[in-house]
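Posting this for the archive.
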Amino acid sequence: MKKALVIAAALLMLPTTASAQEVFGGVYAHAVGTRLSLGSSRESGADFQLGYRGGNIIRGTGLQPYAFAQVNTNGDTSFAAAGLSWKFGDRFYVRPGIGLAVHNGSTKDFIVADRIAFGSRILFEPELGIGARINDRLTIEASLVHLSHGQVFGGQNPGIDNIGARINLKF
């Protein structure tokens, strides 16, 4: 975690450019029970997220590649994800995204007493952010990050939802 903070600090000191690349970080409630996730009561704690979002891949659109890591403070499931998000709006915006994640949780297909049994090491990572621009470089978002395999990689699919807030800084 200390190494990730040093890397983030170094990225923040880079000179600004005209690109829309950004770093982001946030704090999330881990395994929040929603209708999308069935196994959430087996894990808990807070998560810290740190990531990078690239510039628009199609000029004039808000379509951006991203990658991030999310670490759980209780030693439960942590993961790294990469995908594409699409930002709609400017001062106030919505940012849906879809990616793939690799996690360190259980890959078993049946109930595990203290962990979510995801049934696969690779999971889909859909997310939704709702945000506001603070200034030209800084935005803040509330977001939901969901992990599951949608029964593509097996029959069992409990899923997990993490809800939190993140700050995005353009450079």
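The radius of gyration is 16 Å. The CA atoms of residues 90 and 133 lie 7 Å apart.
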